[in-house]
Each structure stands twice: as structure tokens, then as C-alpha cells.
Amino acid sequence: MRIGMRTIKTALTAGIAMAIAAALHLDYWSLAGIVSMLMIATTTRATVRLALFQTVATVVGLVLAWGLFTWIPYAPLAFAVWLLLYIALSNLVDLQDTMIGSAVFVLPLLVVKPITVAILLNQLSVLVIAALTGLFFNLFMPNLTDQISFHVEGVEKELITVLRLQGTLLISGETSVEAQHTLWGHLSSLKQAINEGTAWTARHQANQLFDDNEYYAAYFEMRNNQYELLRQMQLLLDTRLAEMPQHQQMGRLLVDLTKRDRKNNPIPPVLAAIERLQDDLAAMSLPETRKQFAQQAAATSYLIFLRQMLRLKDAFDKIVASQNK
């Protein structure tokens, strides 16, 4: 049997919330443990949101119960009317998740005669203890930067592999099905690493109350856009690789890119090399046949996609990365 961090936090939260409420000699102190368990959400931001909404909703529920339970002497009927009105109000403002927590604090009022301001304040005090205890323990969320960094490394590795393999295919002109399957497999792994990294990043951000650093979110968005361009580039290679003019020059350029020192930003010189290749293609004689036109168009499109892909990374380094150093 595995006991996770959330289970441990829930148990500690419930026990400590009840202990605090009991130490303050509050009536119905055990309710603090029940409600504190409801406050443990999957992320810190979700817990803050839940605690705020639950507090406001419970205040409204207590005021509503004060009037209804005083006016309707038969307890089952009074609670049924309260529940009907509370559900209607919570649906109106989209606070359905607060019903159980509010009902927990309202139910003791059915046996309290008369309902006084003191008992209402007692219930609110128990609620505040439960909410603050849940918030305190949910601030201790695990740091997910290690998992994010792991997927960053995976993205970088697969991206370099895809570029190197495309460059090798362009140089050799190989069009075998096995080579295509290998490349698409690495593209699939690249997409998976991007998706998983994006998910871990979203979870990490939801655990940060005051951290506005959007570096990883911007990073994975940039890589996802690059993936889409790489996918289009591979589709061109699947259909026109051996026929594309200057495919060997393009291949050598890609292989050279994967060997450059990435710390010193190799993109500007590669962009200049791409522009030279585009100029060479533009200087070629006009195609005389449909086949020649398709060949030149495929080479031109491939270079456009490659240039866009590199410019995305160049813009990211100059704008986002530099702002988050």
C-alpha cells in the first residue's frame, strides 16, 4: 500500500485543525477536521480558491439557516428547505462544490435553540481554523522543476535527433520506408515530451502563488510550434526528398547546425546560410514542367519552414529567455 504526500497532508491537516479548535474550547471542534479535508486540493492556487469560496458560501449558508431554522420548527423540513434554496443559489453563482462544507456547519444549528450570534461566530471560527490549516499545509507542494527540466532535456535531445536525421536523409537522398518510420518515431517522441513538459509546467505554475515567471510555458509553446514546422518539413521529405534541388546543401546545413555550440546561439549564421540557399533557388531557371515546378516548390517550402523554426528559437532567446535570467 502506497501512502502519498497528499494523504499525509490530509491526515495532518485534519488532526491539527481539530486540535486547534479544541484548544480554543470551540463547540463542534471536530467539524474543523472534516472541513479541512475538503480544503486539500491538487494545487496551491486551487486550494486558495476553494477556501475563499467555501468561506463566503458558508457565511451565506449560516445566515440562511438562521432565518429558516428559526421560522420553521420542524427540523427535517427546515433543512430540506435550506438545502433547496442553497443549491439554487450555489448553481446561480457556480459554487456547487461548497455544498457539503456548508451543510457540515449548518446541521448542528438544527438542534440549537435558540440560534444566537455566539453559535454563529463559533461556527465561523471553526471554519476559519479549517481553512487556514488547509491553506498552510497546501503551501508545501513539491517542487516540480526537476520533472520539467527532465522533459526539457528530452525535448532538446529528440529535436536534435530529428534535425540530424533529416540532414542525413537530405545528404544521402534516401527514401526508404524504414528511414521515414525512424524519423516519424522520433517526431512522435518529441511531441510526447513537449506535451508532458507542458502538463508539468501547468501544474507547477498552479502551485506558485506569487511567481509570474512564464519561462517554461513559453519554452514548451515555442517547441510545440517548432514541432509543427518539423512535421511539415518531414511531409515534404516523404514525398519529394530525392527530387529536391540543392537537397545535399540543405542536409549539410542541418547536420552542421546540430554540431554547433548551442550556448553561443548558432542561429544567426545558419539563417544567413538559409537565405543564400533561397537566393540560389530563386536564381534557378524557371521550371519547364510540372515536375520541375513541384521540385523547386518543395525545396523552397522546406527552407521557409526551416527558417521559421529557427527564427522562433532566436526570438525566444532574445525576448523570453533574456527576461527570465
UniProtKB/TrEMBL annotation:
The chain crosses the membrane at residues 59-89, 95-112, 119-141. Keywords: Cell membrane, Membrane, Transmembrane, Transmembrane helix. Residues 152-313 form the Putative aromatic acid exporter C-terminal domain. It is found in: Cell membrane. Signal peptide: none annotated. InterPro entries: ArAE_1, ArAE_1_C, ArAE_1_C_sf, UPF0421. The keyword DNA damage does not apply. It is a multi-pass membrane protein. This is Aromatic acid exporter family protein.
